[in-house]
Automatic annotation (TrEMBL):
Keywords: Pyridoxal phosphate. The lineage of its organism: unclassified sequences, metagenomes, ecological metagenomes. Pfam families: Ala_racemase_N (PF01168). This is Alanine racemase N-terminal domain-containing protein. Residues 52-227 form the Alanine racemase N-terminal domain. GO terms for molecular function: pyridoxal phosphate binding. Signal peptide: none annotated.
Amino acid sequence: MKEADRLKKNINNLKIEIDKVCKKIGRSARDISIIVATKYASARQIKLISNLGLRNFGENRADQLEEKYGMVGKGSIWHFIGHLQSRKVKTVVPLVEFIHSIDKISTLSKVNHEAKKISKIQKLLIEVNISGEETKYGINPENLRIFLKEALNYKNIEVVGLMTIAPLTDDFKLIRGIFRRLRILRDESNKDFNNMNLAELSMGMSNDYPVAIEEGATMIRIGSIIFK
């Protein structure tokens, strides 16, 4: 099977599964953004996927983002989904619509500074370490309120949602609990901060996206099941 045909088949199968999950819980599949994780994707694959109609691309590494940014046509939306190092903020901000992985107050300041230089309002999601794993980035859930309050001090950033990564496990009850906790945190934060609209929940990857959708995900970060 040609690579383009294989990618098309995988994308169609993914959309069918998303539609099934959404119908089961009474959501619209149009409310779910598929973010194609490009970490291991070649230039050719990214171009093919763009031609197949997917418009949201997520990259983990700033240097790779620079290389891949120009590979897709106008109308594509880039997301930075990896850990954002302070020294890479200057590279990332001009290229992406969304940064999913803010987990330090100092990074808020740096992003705001770079966005201000190019007259941009940078959309951000706060990464929350719901699982408490030491190997994962993200803020402690208990610190979210302080974090959001600090974000209100900056004019060139807009916090639009929350992000989390579930453990790599077959325990879907555990995974569901983590995604549900993020949704509850988002809902509570929207009540606490009337001047914020935390509409986005970035959660769910190739192994657990159906559970994430059931628990309210608006953005799912998908790589391996598209490229397999």
